[in-house]
Amino acid sequence: MHAMQYEITLPADYDMGTIRKRVADKCHLLDAHPGLGLKAYLLRERGLEGSPVNQYAPFYLWRTAEGMNSFLWGSGFRGLSADFGRPVVHHWLGTGLTSGAGSAGGAEAPTPATATRETVRLPESTDPAEAVERALAELPAHPALHTAAVAVDPSRWELLRFALWHGPAPEDVPGARYQVLHLSRPELDRLPSGRHW
């Protein structure tokens, strides 16, 4: 599993309705993309849920590197880059996944309402394997949880915790908060649960 996200930060007075329309018009294009576990179309609005910015920040869990590559080198990412400029794409190696209520069920399953994402730099004194094991053990077991993932960027030794939630994210879950506009999940049921090594 590969986790991936890019963030497009927009002006403070940007009409976020433009992003909502873009997602509504284009979200179906990845609903059957081979190799894609899920794509969460995420939005942050300045002044809501503590966000200091307006931001469009899609998040992906890829089942295969081939699926990820076909997206990055294909027309979808080219179109986004043509409209907004080419964003930095953050990439983490998946280390674990857990599913909550409502994560199965295909396209007809309810779309999660919110997402949280936390990144933590692992100090040199920290054993990365132990940090990953702790993060996996701490994956939330909450009735509102849809899906949660842990991943690591070993080039920066950065640990990622990402979760999708039915309804508002629990207040005690740290990290940036997002609205979920749509969830493409063509191969979510094929992503392995638990530890990924």
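Second entry:
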Amino acid sequence: MVWRLSEDKQWRRLAERFRWVADMHQVPQDPRHHAEGDVAIHTQRVLAALTEAVEYLALPEQQQEVVWAAALLHDVEKRSTTRVADDGSVTSPNHAKRGELTTRAILYRDIVTPFQLREQIAALVRFHGLPLWIMGRPSPERALLLAALRLDTRLLAILARADVMGRECEDQNGLLESIELFELFCQEQQCWGQVRPFANDNHRYHYLTHSQASVDFVPYEQFQSQVILLSGLPGMGKDRYIAEHAAGMEVISLDNIRRQHRLSPADKNATGWVVQQAKLQAKTLLRRGEPFVWNATNITRQLRGQLVELFTAYGARVKIVYLEVPYAQWLRQNADREYSVPAEAMARMLSKLEIPQADEAHEVELRVQDAS
């Protein structure tokens, strides 16, 4: 897509087609950091700066489209996070994190995008501010290597520079210098446009989950058992995966526990009890060193993290398997299930979906079927 700030017809078309673009016109920004105006004005200027940048024009067409989409969406959830204080200051806490979730839902449901491209765009939205503040983090190396597992740091630098050029602020030159330092830091950490190499999965997982670990330390692999943790929205085919790839393994299923005790999934008061029963079953198997599958949706990082922490405490090697089919197929598969999930609940869960990342387990397998 070609963009010019003076050609506002394209922007008007976007605003007419997508509510989330139109919403940008209603979102104020702090004049100390964004004297140019609201989120819509800023986003248009970012797109103009991006498409005039020499490094952007040198990219292959597909990478241009990825960065352009990320630029359009980078502040999409300022609409839900912006707060105006009594003194007139404006903040938008966690807008990038929420923006990642919204971007994922839009590109899965509304603008069908191949999984790999979708997740690159979502990651760029999530980390678009990283080059500006990473050096102030307690462990900038770990934060950088984790981000580099999800995105191309060269594209991130291009997006961050366009974001700064789309502002009117007194510290613009300082922000641009921060991006230059970020580029040098990436090169120093061997992740400028590439993933930092690790000796094996356990090396990567240990480094990213142990704050005091050296990136050069390769831990000895000694596991007591194997656990497969399934992740995916309802109706994505988790039972089919078990039948085809985990036959003979014990299966701990939250849905089965509910059905055995005649508990409704809508009964939130019973959820804690169901999870505790499942964990008791897991601990028994972990103590025996028996492999098993944990079968539940596990669509958020927090839920997965609690389970992985339990399993690894017993010396298990954990493999997360994420399952996804195209949106239209997902709806059909859910409708065909014996225990289908209501449409409202499906939409709510999609809005919270967090794709498992490489730092969450010893191994993460993405079994994704793109739309043909």
